[in-house]
Specification:
about 425 residues, mainly beta, Immunoglobulin-like, 3 domains, six-stranded mixed β-sheet, five-stranded antiparallel β-sheet, 3 helices, about 5% helix
């Protein structure tokens, strides 16, 4: 599809004809369904990120998990390529361990009225694709647990445009994780086996098999998280729960180091960028042609485990001058019947029509064109029904470094919601 036509279609589909604050809710799109996921509900919403503000440069790639008693606040940032200002508000929803809505009322977890106007915004400056950039500091809560942050338009709580998950934990138990080589011959050197112990000296747990739930995540992802693990051993004298499974239910595909493109400059070509067409609106960047890594040997290099960083490295450029670019990706691979997707944190690891690759019969390549803001992006090629695993185009190596975290939930006798009583994050090479 012609790029200008594609972008025009994007604007039309997302309602990017300028919208004023006087537009009535009856003139908008049909009622949306809220999904308890990291989700954008309109195509004009871009580059959303939720991160803990600890005052460090690397905060933007950290997990949206904070301590209940800590001072760290979560920051939400997102763009709307509807260049005009929109009156957005946010609210919080307390959730159970399975991300179903809990039965807590707002007063039981919120420190104030659960409707927060988003008042911090800036307009882009000099970008070919105009946008409004919004920033919101997530308010503190009174109870630990899973939370869904929902952003909606004006006062219409059903006209939501964005939802993001986050976790607030109370350190009542200690989690001691380890990475082990998987037992058995099959997949032994392609997987990470997660083993851990939970020490609950600080609280009384009468029935750990029923009252405690754990979730293990790889690279901050919820889509492939491991849930429903029961302890393999309960040491009551030491108040310790042991999770040491030998049935592969506690293993992740180790994958490979992530591929990346560097779109931080339009003045010169970043790494893995073949060329940039600056005269187009939006600008167009062509990534180098990728090849499958199925039979390659492992090569260690630094990545950010699927995350992305918005940044403009052009001389003297301000962050509001970061532009949106159509980035062309190409994969040199013979056509197959299964769909192939390009995934990463930039699209919340979701499989959508935008990041599904199409086979170019003339070039004999798979291609995709994705609108990205200037920055540094990690990505991988993903085949949902791929064998032996969905990452077979990337290869899988035990040596590959991944981030992991373990979230511990507890629902005691007489309680009707899950609370988070422990949290641990760690790297596979440590």
């Amino acid at each position: 599809m012609n790029q200008s036509l594609f972008f025009a279609t994007l604007l039309i589909l997302s309602g990017c004809v300028p919208v004023t604050n006087t537009t009535s809710s009856t003139e908008r799109t049909p009622k949306k369904k809220l999904l308890f996921q990291d989700r954008r509900y309109e195509q004009s919403i871009r580059s959303d990120i939720l991160y803990p503000n600890r005052g460090f440069v690397q905060d933007v790639v950290q997990s949206s998990v904070v301590a209940l008693q800590g001072e760290t606040r979560l920051i939400l940032e997102f763009d709307d390529v509807n260049a005009d200002y929109q009156d957005y508000s946010a609210r919080l929803i307390h959730c159970n361990a399975d991300w179903s809505k809990s039965n807590l009322t707002d007063l039981e977890f919120s420190t104030g009225y659960n409707e927060y106007p988003i008042r911090t915004f800036d307009y882009s400056q000099g970008s070919k694709v105009p946008y409004t950039h919004y920033t919101f500091e997530v308010p503190k809560v009174k109870r630990p647990g899973n939370y869904l942050l929902v952003v909606y338009r004006e006062t219409d709580g059903d006209d939501f445009v964005l939802s993001r998950r986050f976790v607030v934990f109370d350190s009542r138990v200690q989690v001691k994780p380890t990475i082990a080589v998987m037992t058995g011959a099959v997949g032994r050197f392609q997987n990470h086996q997660i083993e851990f112990e939970i020490n609950y000296q600080g609280m009384q747990i009468l029935n750990p098999y029923n009252d405690v739930k754990v979730v293990i995540r790889q690279n901050q992802r919820w889509d492939n998280a491991i849930t429903s693990l029961a302890p393999t051993q309960v040491k009551e004298d030491r108040k310790t729960l042991v999770y040491r499974h030998f049935t592969r239910q506690n293993t992740f595909v180790a994958m490979n180091e992530f591929r990346f493109v560097d779109l931080r400059s339009t003045s010169f070509k970043g790494q893995n960028i073949a060329r940039i067409e600056k005269d187009k609106t939006p600008m167009i960047a062509y990534a180098g042609i990728d090849k499958p890594r199925t039979n390659s040997v492992y090569s260690q290099y630094s990545d950010i485990n699927g995350s992305y960083v918005i940044e403009n490295n052009d001389p003297g450029a301000d962050y509001l001058e970061e532009d949106y670019i159509f980035c062309h990706f190409s994969l040199d691979y013979a056509q197959i019947s299964d769909p192939i997707y390009l995934i990463g944190a930039f699209n919340n690891w979701q499989l959508t029509s935008e990041n599904r690759l199409e086979f170019d019969q003339d070039r004999k390549l798979y291609t995709a064109s994705i609108l990205l803001k200037q920055g540094y992006y990690n990505y991988q090629y993903f085949v949902p029904n791929g064998e032996p695993n969905p990452y077979y185009l990337e290869g899988a190596f035990f040596e590959a470094e991944n981030d992991y975290d373990i979230i511990v939930y507890y629902r005691g006798p007489g309680e009707f919601t899950d609370r988070v009583i422990g949290y641990a994050s760690f790297e596979s090479r440590n």
